[in-house]
Structure formats: C-alpha cells, structure tokens
Give the backbone structure.
Amino acid sequence: MQPKSIELLSKLGLGDELYDASFPIENLHSEEWKWKGNDGYLRTKSVLSYRTLDHEFNLARMLPHETLRELLVKKIEQLPSVELIRPAKFKGFEDDVAIIDQKGEKKRIQAYYYVGAEGRSSKMRKEMGITCDEKKYDHHFLTASFPRPKTFTDGLVVGAPHTFLGLFPLPNDYVRSVYRIPPGSYREYKEQPITSYYDLHTTYVPELKDTMTTIASWRDVQLMIPYQFQSPHYVVDNKAILGDAAHSVHPMAGEGMNLAIQDADVLSDLFCWMDEKGKWRDQKLLKWYERVRKPRVDQMIALSHRSQLAYSFHDPIFRKLRTRALIAMEERPLLHFKQMLNVSGLGYYKANLFDWFNHLDVLPTNNRSTIYPKQKRHFYTEQDDYPWRFK
C-alpha cells in the first residue's frame, strides 16, 4: 500500500487499525547478480527510500488484501445509511434497474448511480458498452507467502541474468515472494520437487533456507499472469467503473490496489459534493471523476510498464545500463525524489531528457546522496484531487 492510499484511509479514521494490521516499508533494496557457470555472486546493490519524501506519509505498508477488505467492511457496517449485500453478483440491467444474484435469489436494485468495481472481467463495463484492448506480457510470476527472519524488514528486488525476484515483508513475520518465469513454464516447475522452489530464493537470500519449509507443495504457490489495459471511458451516463474494472497495470510497482483506492476516493468525494450542492441528478458532473483519474492512471501504467522493461532484457550491456541507472537513482537527489514521488501516488514529476542522461550517470552533479529540496510544488493538492470544490 503506497503513501497516498495510506493518507486517504487515515482520513477515513482507519489509521490505527491499518497500522496495527500492516508492516511498514521504508526502503527498497535492489541487487544485481552475475553468474559464472553454476556460481552466482552479488555484483552491485542500491537502495531507494520513501523517507526522501518530505511528507507526513512517507512510508509504504504491506498487508494482505483480505485484511484490508475486512477492515473496510467492519467500518462500513457501522454506517446506518449503508446496506451491505454479501455475497452477491451483479448480473446486468433491466430497464436501468440493476439485477443482483444473491445465493440464487434475484434482486432488483434501483439507484440514481451505479458503480462497478468487480475487477478485470467487469460486467458493469460490458453493460456500459466499453471494450478494452488488453496487453499480455512475455512473462508470468510465481507468488507465495511464507515466514521470514525477523531481520528481514525492507523490500528487496533481485535482478539476475534471466529472472527477477521480489521479496516484501508482511506483518506477523511473513514475507511475500514474486518470482518471474517464462509464460507457459508453470507446469514444468510443478513437475520438480518443491525444494527447487526454495532454491529460487535461497540462492540469493540464504537466510530464507530455514523459513521456506512451510511451503509444503506447489499447491501453496500461485501463478500470477500480468495484464495491462486502460478503459477509454470511466463514465457513461449514470454508470461508472473504478479499479481493475477500469484499468489494469503491470504488478511491478504494486499499484493495482492503490489505484482502486484512489479512484474510489475521488469518485466518492464528487458524489458528496454533488449532494451538498443540490446537483445530485446532474449526470454530466460525473465526467469530473474521469478527468482527474484517467491521466493519473495513464502515468502509472507507463511507470509500471517501464519498470518491468528494465528487467525484460537480459543482454549484458543492457543489464550494465540498468545497474548504472539504479545507482544513479540512489545517489542523485532529483532522480531519487522523482521515482519515489511517482510511485507513492502523492504527486507526479514528469521525466525529461536530462533525466535519461542522469540515469546513465554521464552528467556531473555536486549533491549526491542529499535530499532534493524543492518538493512541495510537486505534491498533489486538494485542488488537484477535488477540482470541483474550487470552481
């Protein structure tokens, strides 16, 4: 969970519960490994820190999706104006009335507005007549959670000649693993002993050797297939979509859940403002939601796509350039700030031509490893998030 999402949930009064149920991530370490025959060795390492952001919320947090959902449901159930129908499935519309299936029982729900947040295969999006071009990637991921050593408290990304490993601490002394594999190779991996899955990790992080044994079989390892799409519209008449129903990003930057939270915040504030101003039935105002969120999602899709590209080419020259870029990001304050700001969701600072030269570390700098000073102008303001309140 990125800083912007933490800020939004804290404003809803979930701060204490969220902190208790999650694990803070301050630093993201990157390691580059090289291999000679069967022997691998660490070549370079670098670190990026959320603490470089001059902001109250300058930490990320890790927690299972299910935990966050239960925290939100518990909060929702305290609201007298909300009826929670769970489980249920949206089936479509009949005469602009939503049809819900609840345990085989058909229910009709009539409302001024309908919002779909049912994920990538959104029925609401289809009912709105919206089609999307979906991009598939040339890789899949193996993911699992297992115990971690208590000393493992930061995020770690390992780049090797033909793969990528990400490890991110969870609460309760667990860690989430993401390991990149070629598409279609999952069956081949499953035919090997489960100890081969351990080896994919312990080669780079030997201290995991004693904690991974809780992964008893391949049934404990999930396959994750990355997709990318952006809906051409988020709003049609009195209907809107958000989260994975509206867009999907490559999971490299871990932004899917965050984008959904930020979509919901903007749309819900717009609904509140429409009600406050007596403009509840003015459907045209819903376009404000799309104007605010769609450009930001475009930016995050591009950032996530570039992040995965950095680990998609295995040529030694390209890997050397990647290593140089990671070290430059750590040492050059402006690059460090831009990367962490854009990932955090707290603001956006567009890259330019000079940044690419700086990533290659070919331009001189006199202020390595210091905090970039001119930050506040690049953070989103309330006017950026909720422009209708300033018209």
Notes: The chain has twelve helices and 18 strands. The CA atoms of residues 193 and 203 lie 16 Å apart. The chain has a mean pLDDT of 91. The longest strand covers residues 39-49.
